[in-house]
């Protein structure tokens, strides 16, 4: 069976590298993955298990450690089979589970968008997961195998995957210094994206190589000889520039194939930095260097840690060629990059101190690179987050990455998606579970925002949000709504007073209206309405300016509003247009007065405060009697028809001090499905010490429910009295 053969090959490879090691963990991971993938096939028709095995073979070639190899074998089980991450953790330990989780999350990323920003977020996301670099290494190996077998998927998918490889995976491999994988990824992508350009280019380079084969062999031989004469130990290899890299050079520099000096190159690999420079001397002594083509990447390494000396020389018969000179170590870094640092070292198990040191060295290196990068949009600058974990990386259900400051809430997330989503947000789910709006988002959370059309942001949100975008939008929304309401209220208020005082507003000219408005510093009537609505001025004052002859200066005869209204209007409230609907919750401009805290169903009255909108009081509230001396500030209000709100009502209950009392009290509220917000019971010292006082705040729908609840409480044997308090 090919799958078992592949596994034997893998085991042999690992065995050769580390003959002492116990390979049971590798075998376990193989058996486990093979069991779960056993019914699946790839697009090519071969058993699915071929894929994880080949990925792991690539990792074994890179000499990765056991955790990494196990991750390679298991990398698709969580995503593609019924296996949970928890099972992986139990069986293979937390490190493997973390790596598998990382790879799974990366596969969920929606990488289709070629938008610059998206790519950047993606990079950030990748780097957020660089807490374990092995995630990226496995992901690159995974992509490499998928690219090698791209032939068996549809043309459309080929193009998408190839483009994604070119846009994201190859650059990442490059940044991590993994030259070998990068080169292969790029060439495979190029081949699928532009098959004609690709084959033409390959044909031409191959022609050139064949035409110059003999000369190159001669040169190679010469170099080898001269170096050994100088006592420089070295091996000399021929190298053909990668197709995609040639293609880019031709395009970028608008040159012909003849001018690509490094199309054919020789590579000298020696033992020390000193000998690199010595070898360079030997070359320049023999052939004439082309000016401007000498590059010392040993003294100044490339940002991805690549080191080498490059030079181009004019060879025999006018054949220009490039020579690259490096040490073995530099060669390894050039081919494998970060993976070279992560390599399996014999006798080391798990995460050791040395391993941590390496990781830290790598991070420090990243900071160093960053300094050298001029383009601020560059990949490296985004590495910030890894070192300064001030950001969280979250996903939309479709895999879009939303980067937010630490401790950001679902409201920030909603506004980051769209201001409309933000303002109509009523709830949120993180990873499929409902979370409160004050929830602090975590790295990797998949967040879904629940919205309701017509919903408006609440002032409380300002305390929850962490982004200035959300804060500004909320403020803006609140101000806009408040103003709209104020205009509406102000207009109604003015009309009502006009009717009450017998001023026909419709007969007052627009010019006169605007003149009075400007007296109040308002440029439009609308602004004056708003000012009235906010309670800055009284409607009576305004009307007095509009029609001094009709409105007396003093409030000598403050007649009650109602009879007047009935007389002046046509008697019906609907027509009067004056009733302000009060919703149950404390509203923006219409709010329930704290002194009497009226609940739905109770008779209420509105009072236009100075600057705070309309306070709604219970008509029985003692404050109302005192306030209403300014009768023109009184306004009719009624409960809006919306039944879902709950009002907190605080009550004090005096009872006998006996067991079971609290139980009975709470069961009454339970039967009414009324929530208890707080409850406190204590002995009543005043009444012979045989009584108890229960103070509780409960949520009540309306007056009727309140009466029902208090009635039932009264009927409990041992309840002496009940009071509603404010
Ligand atoms: Mn895979």
Chart the SSEs and their pairings:
Blueprint: H1 2-17, H2 24-37, H3 50-61, H4 66-74, H5 77-80, H6 85-92, H7 94-108, H8 116-128, H9 133-148, H10 155-175, H11 179-193, H12 195-229, E1 234-240, H13 243-253, E2 264-270, H14 273-286, E3 288-289, E4 295-296, E5 309-314, E6 320-327, H15 328-336, H16 338-341, H17 353-372, H18 384-387, E7 391-395, E8 401-405, H19 410-417, H20 419-423, E9 425-430, E10 433-435, E11 447-451, H21 461-464, H22 468-501, H23 510-519, H24 525-533, H25 539-546, H26 561-568, H27 573-576, E12 580-582, E13 590-592, E14 604-608, E15 614-618, H28 622-627, E16 634-635, E17 637-639, E18 647-656, H29 661-671, E19 676-684, E20 691-700, H30 703-714, E21 719-725
Parallel strand pairs: 2-6, 12-17, 13-15
Antiparallel strand pairs: 1-2, 3-5, 4-5, 5-6, 7-8, 9-10, 9-11, 14-15, 14-16, 18-20, 18-21, 19-20
Helix pairs in contact: 1-3, 2-4, 3-4, 3-9, 4-7, 4-9, 6-7, 7-9, 9-11, 10-11, 11-12, 12-13, 19-22, 22-24, 22-25, 22-26
Brief account:
The protein is an alpha+beta fold and 726 residues long.
Descriptive account of the structure:
With 726 residues, the protein is an alpha+beta fold. Strands 1, 2, 3, 4, 5 and 6 form a six-stranded mixed β-sheet that branches. Strands 13-15-14-16 form a four-stranded mixed β-sheet. Strand 19 and strand 20 (691-700) form a beta hairpin. Helix 7 (94-108) crosses helix 9 and helix 10 (155-175) runs antiparallel to helix 11. The longest helix is centred in the first third of the chain and has 35 residues, at 195-229. Mean pLDDT is 79; it is low at 346-353, 355-360, 366-389 and 555-578. The structure holds manganese (II) ion. Manganese (II) ion (MN) binds next to loops.
